[in-house]
Design a protein that fits this description.
Shape: elongated
Structural class: mainly alpha
Largest sheet: none
Radius of gyration: 26 Å
Number of helices: 12
Helix content: over 70%
Number of domains: 1
Length: 293
Amino acid sequence: MGLPLPFQPSTPYPSTHPPTHSPMTILLKNILAIYQRELHSYFASPLPYMIAAIFWLLGGFFLVATLLGPQGILAQAAMADQAVQMGMPPAPPFDVAYEFNKGYVGLLGSLSLFVLPMLSMGLYADERKQGTLELLATSPVTNWAVALGKLLAVVSFYIAMVLPLMVCQAVALGAATPPTGSGVFLLSHLGLVLMAASILALGMFVSSLTESTVLAAIMTFALILLLWLVDAIAQGLPGVLGQGLGHLSLLKHFTDFTEGIFDTGGLVLFLSFIVLGLYLTAQSIETLRFQRS
């Protein structure tokens, strides 16, 4: 009989070395942690609920007024039909569903101009006020990861605010004959979210400059009002300067989306504002980190 073989387990022993993660995995985990922390703060504070309630109240009012008001879409369509029955020259074709979608999403965009600064004002200002910004500035988490996590959280909260109104609008559009295409409906709301993300990114940078949430909201509103009306300013300027300035208008590119026009120039503009806001915020926190070192 030969010597017995040494014991060999059917499965190898677990390694005693801790698992290693790639830098990208660590970065994504950091962003997710910041995102969850920031999103939880929105649902744990009464102020965002108050903002959402006002947004829903005004959004619902605009929905009814746009559709059923004395000067609403249905009233305009009825007046056009009466004019034809009275023998008057027919008016240009009037797509009720399309006009309602374009007008209502445009009103939501205008309403968002007042809501978005209140959502972004505390992203970093509250951190300054509570004294936790220094901890973020000196933590191993990169400034880009913190800024991106915060931005994703506030954009998610804004989308949660818009969704109930989207459902109500979809129900109203579903009753239209003929119904409007879902592409126009989705594209117009994509433009709304992109515009909101652009404003929130810039508002986040403004919030990183001060510990006063009220001042951050006022400065953000002034900035987006300038970007909203820059097209009107550009029309008064001659030549290439006016044309170039006009391309920076949020209103112009947002209107293209509400009309169902997928404008790559508008998409690039919105994404550029988002990246610019993230970059400026990261640089602002990096400056604070340099001052503390």
